[in-house]
Each structure stands twice: as structure tokens, then as C-alpha cells.
Amino acid sequence: MTAIQADGLTKVYRGGIKAVNAISFAVEQGEIFGFLGPNGSGKSTVMQILTTLVLPSAGRALVMGIDVVRRADEARRCLGYVSQDLAVDDCLTGRENLSLQARFYGLPRREARSRGDEVLDLVGLTDRADDLVETYSGGMRKRLDIAGALMHRPSVLLLDEPTLGLDSQTRTAIWDYARQLRTRAGITIFLTTHYIDEADGVCDRIAVIDQGEIRAIGTPRELKAMYGGQADAGSPERPSLEGAYLAITGRAVRAERGSAEETRRRRSILRRTRSG
Asked: How far is C-alpha 3 from the geometric centre of its chain's CA atoms?
């Protein structure tokens, strides 16, 4: 079954700014699928449309066969969302954070407890469940954030720059847990990242998006074979995903719309709609 299907997805903001221009792609169930693109390329807008926080101007998007516009409430039940910013309370324990998250989903107390134990085990935090989050490392906080997004057992997990600002060891650990989620729980993962090495090592397939349009889709090996030797004309270097990325998108620095405050606001809106 196709987990995510986008057909002609378009978003035009005020002033005629076309953030996403008639893109189409599909993510298969159980796949780890990544979006790579320069700042302002449209990847955040696609993420917002999939989470039902932004309405598309044209086209449609389906999550597990459910239209995210016409059946938004049903679509949200299929989704877990982890934004760039942490959504955990340092003054609570890990378990208390998950109990709070369970309330947003309207889970009964007994069910919330069992699911909390389940997701804590999935992200490797069982031994620290009753410790205050203020004693957690940055990587542990992020793993707890992911655990919160899994409380309602979603079919699709959306990760927006989940390892931004983390050190290499912690980034590696986060992706190890993501692979375990795919293997143990059969979860489909859709992610955005600026770290090309992450996309290369983690994703089954990658879509390179630029100026609101998908320029290429393929496995890391396919993209490297097609574009990886073109980063520098005549370069004898072995094909790389970075070379492919630069060949597709160019080297110009882009300005990305949005801010951390807007991300926090979107996360708050999503939490409220989950319980509505």
C-alpha cells in the first residue's frame, strides 16, 4: 500500500509566491523517504500540507489513502509529527511527558500507560522513564519527542529536521532508533534534513526539491550514478550524493521563509487538532 501520495500538489501564498509547484511523488509503506532541498525550496510547505496545517492551492495529498483536506481528522490519526523544536517539558519526567501527550489524543489512562511503556522501549528510554527530563541529554530529549509522536500508534511518522543541532554521535543514534521503528513497528518515515550524509545513509529513496519543484527522485545510489560526478566540471572524484545534490540544485544560498516561533505555533495547532 502507498503510505503517502501527492498528485499535482501546489501551494501559492499571498503575493503570488508559489512555494510548491505541481509536485507529485509517492512513498511506499515501510519506506524511509527523504526530502532534500535548499532553503526556501518548498520542503517545509510540503510537510505542513501533509500534517493538515496548510491547505494546498491545488492538487491533493493522501496519507494511507485518506485525503488530508477532505478527511483531515482521519488523516491526523495516521500521522505522528516531530518538528525541529523540542516539544518536551523539562520539569516533568519522561513518563509524565508521554502521559500529557496521551491526553491530546484522548487515550484512557490505562491505555496511555501501556503505550507509554511500549514507546519508551522503542526509543530506548525505559531505564530513564521516571527521571526529570532536565537531566536528559539533547539526544534523549529528541528520542522522547519521537516517543510522544508515537503514542497513538501512527502509520506514518513525519520528521522535520529531527537531528538539527545534534552532535554526530547523537545523530547516528537517532537514526538507529528510526530504523528500529521501521523494522519493529512497520512505520513509514518521511523526513526532511539538511545533512546529506544522513540522507545517504538512512533513506531508501530521496526527492530533491528546488524552487518548489521536484528535480529528481531515486535511491541514493541512483542519484549518485546519474548526477554525482557533475558537482565540478571535469572532476575525477568518485560520484557522491553531495555532488549529485549540488549538480541538481546549484550552489546559490537561498533564504528560507518561516521561523522557530512559527514552527512552535504549528506544533501547538497540531496538538489542539489531535484532541478535537
From this structure: 14
Q: pLDDT tens for residues 69-90?
A: 999 999 999 999 998 778 899 9
3-state secondary structure the chain: CEEEEEEEEEEEEHHHEEEEEEEEEEEECCCEEEEECCCCCCHHHHHHHHCCCCCCCEEEEEECCEECCCCHHHHHHHEEEECCCCCCCCCCEHHHHHHHHHHHCCCCHHHHHHHHHHHHHHCCCHHHCCCEHHHCCHHHHHHHHHHHHCCCCCCEEEEECCCCCCCHHHHHHHHHHHHHHHHHHCCEEEEECCCHHHHHHHCCEEEEEECCEEEEEECHHHHHHHHCCCCCCCCCCCCCHHHHHHHHHCCCCCCCCCCHHHHHHHHHHHHHHHHC
What pTM does this model have?
A: 0.82
Contacts of 66 (CB under 8 A, 6+ apart): 74, 75, 78
- The tens digit of pLDDT for each residue in 10-26 reads 999 988 889 999 999 99
**Domain chopping of the chain, boundaries:** 2-219+268-275
Domain 2-219+268-275 sits in CATH 3.40.50.2000? no
